[in-house]
Amino acid sequence: MSSPISLDFYDAELGAHHRHLRAAYGISPGDAVVDIGCGTGLTTREAARAAAPGRVVGVDVSERMLERARQLTAAEGLDNIQYELGDAQVHRFDTAGFDVAISRFGTMFFSEPAAAFANIAAALRAGARLVLLVWQRQEHNEWARAIEAALGEAAQPPQPGSDPFSLADARATTAMLENAGFDGVRFEDVHEPVVYGHDLDAALAFVRGFQDTSAALARLSEGEAARTVERLRETLAAHQSDERRIVFDSRSWLVTARRRRRR
Prior knowledge:
By secondary structure, the chain is an alpha/beta fold. Helix content is 41%, strand content 21%.
């Protein structure tokens, strides 16, 4: 099982992006909130503090992440959170049961995104808020370009359901959200770094855990894989800042919308 440090690495990586999401939540005391792709529950716990005495449901496909989320939630003494193992694309939510849906980079991996957002919309009350962070195009994300370059010919185009940039096209994503039942869709440019910490070994282990990276390495011979891992290490080392942090440029979208009111 991954250590708590590796499971929490994601929160540290996205700290600068996360501030924008937090500022956009608009959660009020008494709200019911659903957190899509909640991971280890940082966003869920923040929502729970803002919504109290309202309830928050965190949903994720990883039991390992949810186990860590439950540990951290218990340690913080929060009692208005429920974690559920499931894919938001097909998960059985309470119909019109939530006032706010949030997600920090947790909605790009649906195999059927139109169906997923329709399912999420059905879980929201009329006028409820949708607040998401999603990646912009790969060419605007240095971390992705650098990793792909290090992987070389082993890198392959992402398969449906594994593309972190699947919602990068603002026009197409707006149309999909509107068809799913949302109005007032807005995209705000977020230009912040991703930070892989100070520990080069930990950063390398984290990057090797990316689905596309691990799949690429698995396609290689033992010797080729070892040389590719060394290129990844060199790439990370080349991005250490004066403070020794491993930093890459990146851009994401802060997406907000409202559940369409019934006429």
